[in-house]
Amino acid sequence: MSQQQKKPKIRTKTVITAHANSDFDALASMVAASKLYPDATLVFPGSQEKNLRNFFIQSTTYLFNFKSFKDIEPESVELLVVCDTRQRGRISHVAPLLDNPGLRIHLFDHHPDTDDDLEAEQCIHKNWGSTTTIISHMLMENGTELTSEEATLLGLGIYEDTGSFGFNTTTPEDFQAAGWLKGFGMDIEVIKDLLSHELSAEQITNLGELLQNATNHDIHGIDIVFTEISTDKFVPDFALLVHKLMDMEDIQVVYALGRMGDRIHVIARSKNADVNVGAICAAMGGGGHAAAASATIKDKTLAEVRDDLFVHLYSQINPQIVVKGLMSSPPVTIEDDKSLSDAVEVMTRYGLKDVPVVQKDTMKCVGIMGHVTADKAVSHGLGDMALSEYMTRKFETVNVDTGLYNVMEIILSHRQRMLPVVNGEDIVGVITRTDLTHMLIEEPARIPKSLLPERRRERNIASTVNNRLPQSMIDLLKVAGKLASEMDTEVYAVGGFVRDILLGRPNLDLDLVVEGDGIEFAKKLVDELGGRVKAHTKFKTAVAILDDGQRVDVATARLEYYEYPAALPTVELSSIKMDLYRRDFTINALALRLNPGRFGQLVDFFGAERDIRNKTIRVLHSLSFVEDPTRILRAIRFERRFGFQIGGQTMRLIKNAIQLELFSKLSGTRVMHELQWIMNEQDPLSCLNRMQELGIMKAIHPLLELTKDRIQVLIELVKVYNWYKLLYLEPKAEPWKVFILGITMGVKREQVPQVTERLHFTKREEREFLVLRDMIGEALMKLMGWKEGKSKLSKLYFILHPIPIEGVLFLMARSRKEYIRRNISQYLSGLRYTKIEVTGNDLRELGIEPGPIYTKILTKLMEAKIDGRADTKKQQLKLAKRLSIDLDNNNDESET
């Protein structure tokens, strides 16, 4: 182990830090704060500015003894001092400290308030040009002495953040602080060199690109310049280039966008008091102040970020259009105790697509009921059900003074067709998608393309696909795309295959959807790659089984509808959107374009990416579980597999489906199919426990409720099964047989057919299951009499050998005696493979007449070998000869 590894971590009560991607003001304010907290440890958060990084490495580390957070013992920290920001999201490098019990926080900042601001014991905030200025005035009042190096560093912070006193955010206090620092030897030449150094050839090229791409936009009388640069690597000193651009072109307001790798960096500068670039960058996840700000954005294109900026600018510069001028008032509402039929009647009478649901005898909006959902529910015979069971409970509202951008974001981006307008808790009006459309026709420039669903679902993830899939699969996808183009149609990879690409999980089960003839496409695919096709004409699907063994499921884009609750689907031709809409959950309603030219574009109509980020399982519509209750089991399976959480609305719909006893309408075959999938999961017990918690085990059959004893055995079964699986032994155990033994433990023999019939076992499966249970019961009795050290190992072998592997695993989990479990383990991993060297031919050569005596002799030989009495073939032949004589004599005596 190296000396560096052995070095103990620093115990310190006080840590001083600043925001990530630090500038000079952040660095200087930290050093200034160290004068107020002399025993503190300075933790540098890192910077992306090249000149700052070089200066820090060459000078500041040496002079001010900065540390990395990894050098600190987090538990020892009692006080956290944060400079030049108050935002929690901008100090992720010290985030673990925020969990310290009783942690005190002191803040020093000159940026505007944000929703992400930390709560603090002490907060010093002033709207001055820099944070360094704020702390410098405190040092002035304290009579603090500085070295010339310290004064120069603090001066750098003030000069940079005030634009060398050229920004309109500069205050008299900034000049006073600089004058005070000059008295301690602040070196203005050093500051000038660091802030105005000569540009390199590469920087000149980048500046030229920014100049070439600059465009002017008149937004309500204010001239704003947008420019951008695109490169696969980080551009150092991007902010310096923007500063040079402003000076060269005499620009008042500029937004510079730099695509660097997979991120968009935004640098914003403003000399116009009407444009607060800090507020706009903060709304995009960044920070800064009115004159200078920045943001770093992931998972968006340059065009999408530009669109967002335009919207924020329109909203900020001319925010006069508010909800009050758009809403329809008074709203038509319905009370939450009314039925679904009542809701249909109200919406039909007033020609509404949605209606707000209010709490009985109040105007408090508690939900939104959709006409399509209510109509469907009535067609399923649920007209008398309370509409509160199927209304949407998760929705957004706005107040009468809300600006246009928020309305657009909710209606266009979040796809909430109707937006309730509230005053306090009471609904006073509504804005519909139609209302918004009519307004936007008047001012189309207000529509941000990034908020249009068409744009949001077309993010290209080709690089992710290429990084996370094997080359053979990528080649297959591209061949499929080429064939689709030749057929003048579109093909998509869909469902779990796409979901797992985003999750970074291995999944080579490829499902394709063709906006055309899926069966014909499958035939062309095997013509191209070799293989055969299994077609299912009724469902317009096919399976292409390629020569390399890869299976590809191919479907025609289709819409499934259900004639009655829990029915099998009826299939109609449709588009990719409708094909995705028929799927179970949003996270599975994803498609990936494969056609050349659009390869890798992600199609996401229903917010799947958002739900994946939020780790949420959410159904696509309120009647999902009514139409197919097996989706409840799939929801649990996905929740446990991915570590997600079933969404609140979806959980409520699950409980409603169970109350309606919809599981009783499901065929045993479909229930058993889903149970088998659950029992194939890595952690089936977690799924079964969740089913028990929700009352699903009882809903499937009352005899399947998980008792305490069953849960205990299932815990052991999971361990035993996973242990066996890791050994890669043959034969492989079928997990559903293993776990069905666990969940039916304690069910009386005469009651077992009730369970097997409910789960639609075939007669053969039922017979084999009953025989297996009987064998297990007999073996349990025999094992109780088997004693380690007293009973022969061969006896254990002959107890276990006739039992199928699933039964042996159950016995191992079921046994409470450690020595029996240990010996069953020995049996599974080696003993059961014991073979004797003597065969029937050897017995014939010994002159023993064939017959039942062979079985008896071979059994005795196996017993002797296991117990170590006949290890070699010679010993076994000798024993066989003696056994044949003894058995013959016994037969003679019995005949006598």
CATH class of the largest domain: Alpha Beta
Any idea what the radius of gyration is? 37 Å
> How would you sum up the global shape?
globular
Query: How big a fraction of the residues is strand?
Result: 5-15%
How many beta-strand segments? 28
Class by helix and strand content? alpha/beta
**CATH architecture of the largest domain, please?**
2-Layer Sandwich
Description:
The protein contains 38 helices and 28 strands. It has 6 domains: 10-195, inorganic pyrophosphatase (n-terminal core) (Alpha-Beta Complex); 201-316, Diaminopimelate Epimerase, Chain A, domain 1, CATH 3.10.310.30; 323-456, CBS-domain (Roll), CATH 3.10.580; 462-679, 2-Layer Sandwich (Beta Polymerase, domain 2); 701-832, cca-adding enzyme, domain 2 (Orthogonal Bundle); 840-895, no CATH class. The protein has a 7-stranded mixed sheet. The protein is α/β, with parallel strands linked by helices. α12 links the parallel β12 (334-335) and β13 (354-358).
